[in-house]
Amino acid sequence: MEIQLSNSYPFNLGFTLDCGQAFRWNKRGEWWYGVVREKGFKIRQVSSKLEFENVDADFVKDYFGLRDDLPKIFSQITIDKHIKAAVEKFNGLRILRQDPWECLISYICATYKNIPAIRQMLFNLSKKFGNKKAFNSYEFHTFPTPTRLAKTSIKELAECGVGYRAKYISETAKTIYGNDFKLEGLKKKGYEKTRRELLTFPGVGLKVADCVLLFSLGKLEAFPVDTWLKRIIIKYYTSHFPKEFIKKILSKKSLANSEYKRLNLFGRRNFGRYAGYAQEYLYHFERTQC
DNA sequence: CAAGTGCCTTTATC
DNA sequence: AGATAAAGGCACT
């Protein structure tokens, strides 16, 4: 099956899967292979045509954020030269709608790790506790369910190389399994309320919550502030803050909650209801500038 | 080569 | 409230 793209309907598959928002995609030749929930599939982009097998167009439009009105979003977030450069260079990068459960565990794992290490941890977890499937002679593993991880010992989880995160994964899985908690239900609730709910899971602080809100729950106003965004704000947006505040966050390696909230609020007020898109473009642009 | 730093941070404790 | 330390392990300098 295929979807026809255009200038008024832009999408760039490579940028979208390569910008570090999802961790379990693999490129083989010109096809990208992925697994979402129980389904493995492949997809490629040939200029303005998107081709895929084993999933329908409705799923693709949902998962890859193709229902977001990107031209409208650009018109709202392109308010300075920095964001303009990022939007021009990576035009077509879209925010995914990942599975919330996988996204939650992924970003619990992501704390204090780099992207290759995060990929490795998630691969290990999936290989050990997910189900093996195959598509087009491509083997993959589904992401382990809350039930499966709730029943897995901390020791076994730790064997996947997740370190101290093992107990957070275990406790979060048990909370969801025990209360029959439906993360999908959070899609219908507002940003603030949902963030408060996510913060009750162990291993989930403000940054992880914002990532889950943005990358899986469709809260496009979420503005995750990681170490890169902190650097970006200090580098390009320092004039929006008192000198003393900048000095303070420069002097420490990690942000206090109050400092995080201040940077996060800046992002949301400055870029508006699609601040998450601004965040991801700035993030990817800065990371690829080296 | 050893030791320090950084990695899409959170939690516990004072 | 704010500061500080600890928590895998690996790549890089």
Description:
The chain is of the alpha+beta class. It has 3 domains: 2-67, TATA-Binding Protein, CATH 3.30.310; 69-95 and 219-290, Endonuclease Iii, domain 2; 100-215, Endonuclease III, domain 1 (Orthogonal Bundle), CATH 1.10.340. The chain is 52% helix and 11% strand. The chain has 15 helices and 7 strands. It has helices at 13-18, 57-63, 70-77, 81-89, 100-110, 115-129, 146-150, 154-162, 165-179, 191-198, 206-215, 227-236, 243-251, 257-271, 275-287; strands spanning 2-4, 26-28, 31-36, 39-46, 49-53, 132-135, 138-141. The strands form 2 sheets. The chain has a 5-stranded antiparallel β-sheet, with no helix packed on it. Strands 6-7 form a two-stranded antiparallel ribbon. Helix 5 packs antiparallel against helix 11. It is globular. The model has no long low-confidence stretch (mean pLDDT 96). It binds a DNA duplex (14 and 13 nucleotides) through residues 20-21, 107-108, 110-118, 158, 161-166, 168, 202-208, 211, 224-229, 252-256, 258, 260, 283, 287.
